[in-house]
Amino acid sequence: MAEAKFEESFWLDTTVDKREREGLGDALAQRARSGRPMVGFQLKNADLAGIDLVNHGEHAGYQLRDADLYRANLHGAHLFALDLRGSSLMKADLRQANLHCADLRGCNLLGIRLDGARLDNVIWDRQLLQERQGRQRLRSGDCTGATELFQEAEETYRNLRLHLEQAGLFEQAGRFFHREMVMRRLRMPRYSAQRLLSWLVDLFSGYGEKPLNVVLFSLGLIGFCGLLYFLVGVRLGEQTLGLALDRDLLVNLMDLLNCFYFSVVTFTTLGYGDISPHGLARPIAAFEAFVGSFTMALFVVVFVKKMTR
């Protein structure tokens, strides 16, 4: 049997060059089918092209966890639902491979080659390995090391995003684009206008990937300005609408609703003219109208970007 040619220690030996080992792919596939654990396997530079590691007839795939697959040749490999958590796939060749439902959490994916790979339903990390390590370095005070890791994370996110876009998986590609831009921001000088602007774009729209952020910001600004109008007062004809402690609760509540209405028409720049600002309400209305026109344009751009993918 193919797997019998390789002792248990062979799979864990870091000193053995597995590049030219004949029958290695068949032996690994046989080992997987045996049901014995495959943890920490050292497969650096291994030629595993076309290997079949699919657990046929079962929902759960095989496990190949914490493996070193640096520069491994997995071209055209069948890896459906394979559990690769914690493995190093750095610069591995996974072109044309089937990674459908594979678990890649905790993997080092720097420089991975994924041209033509099947990537639907892959289980990804919310934060890639380099990002987590970079944040740990940042907390420990190692800014230089953190910046280098953030750069690697940005490159990895970009690489994954491009391949996901090619595969038509735009939702996941959008998430990786957002993380890519966050990594770029974290490499900027900490107290710089450029970094502040990048943070604001992220806050308001998630770098164009989160239209809900624009909606929530709009609702928040409308509500905040409505409360300010209620405190400083606006006019409905000759009548002043605003907080008046000498009036009963119902009247104040109706005035508050009218102030929210005025905030909506000001934010959207409709300007019906039935309610008008005066005094301190004027600069507030001018600010809200300016921000509102900008925010609505931003929402259209973000929404169209998401819907046209």
Q: Main traits of this protein?
A:
single chain, 309 residues, mainly alpha, Serine Threonine Protein Phosphatase 5, Tetratricopeptide repeat, Helix Hairpins, 3 domains, three-stranded antiparallel beta sheet, 48% helix
Encode the helix/strand succession as letters.
HHHHHHHEEHEH
> Ends: how far apart?
50 Å
* CATH class category label of the largest domain: Mainly Beta
Identify the CATH architecture of the largest domain: 3 Solenoid
The count of β-strands is 3
Total tally of structural domains: 3
Which overall shape is indicated by the principal axes computed on the Cα atoms? Answer: elongated
InterPro entries: 5peptide_repeat (IPR001646), K_chnl_dom (IPR013099), Pentapeptide-BTB/POZ_domain (IPR051082)
Transmembrane segments: 214-237, 249-272, 284-304
Keywords: Membrane, Transmembrane, Transmembrane helix
Protein name: Ion channel
Structure description:
With 309 residues, the chain is mostly helical. It is 48% helix and 3% strand. The protein folds into 3 domains: 1-123, 3 Solenoid (Pectate Lyase C-like); 124-187, Serine Threonine Protein Phosphatase 5, Tetratricopeptide repeat (Alpha Horseshoe), CATH 1.25.40; 211-307, Orthogonal Bundle (Helix Hairpins), CATH 1.10.287.70. It is built from 9 helices and 3 strands; from the N terminus they run αααααααββαβα. It has a 3-stranded antiparallel sheet with strand order 2-1-3. A hairpin with a 2-residue loop joins strand 1 and strand 2 (239-241). It is elongated and about 95 Å long. The two termini are 50 Å apart.
